[in-house]
Amino acid sequence: MSNPSAEAQQTKALLEKNFAAYKLAQLELSKGIQARTQLTSQYNENESVIEELNRLDDDANVFKLIGPALIRQDLVEAKSNVSKRIEYIKNEMDRSDSQLKSLESKNKDKEAELIKLQKKLQSLAQGP
């Protein structure tokens, strides 16, 4: 049989290693949530822009800010650009959602492993 003290030390080291990995995974999840929130904000902003563009008359002047200058832009072109941007953001949101699901799943697995190791360490500390 192995030495209970050595096994406890080994389990404690593994627990610390897994806890560090869990903290990193939590940080990665947090960054993913922040990115998803930013995408949602951009999506809402672009939806508002397309609504405003749809309210304009066909002969209305539309300008695009490029650097410090306002450049005249065709209304149809402006609607097309914003629609493409909305489609791109939707795709990024879908990608972000699947990435977040994966990260959440990994975090749950890491958390379950931590709990298992903690219980093992407690049982070793209590002795036979």
TrEMBL record:
Q: Which SUPFAM superfamilies does this chain map to?
A: Prefoldin
**Keyword set for this entry?**
Chaperone, Coiled coil
CDD domains linked to this entry: Prefoldin_6
* Residues in the signal sequence: none
UniProt source species: Dunaliella salina
State the superkingdom: Eukaryota
Q: Which family does it belong to?
A: Belongs to the prefoldin subunit beta family.
Provide the organism lineage as a comma list. Answer: Eukaryota, Viridiplantae, Chlorophyta, core chlorophytes, Chlorophyceae
Q: In its UniProt entry, what is this protein called? A: Prefoldin
Q: Which residues form a coiled coil?
A: 86-127
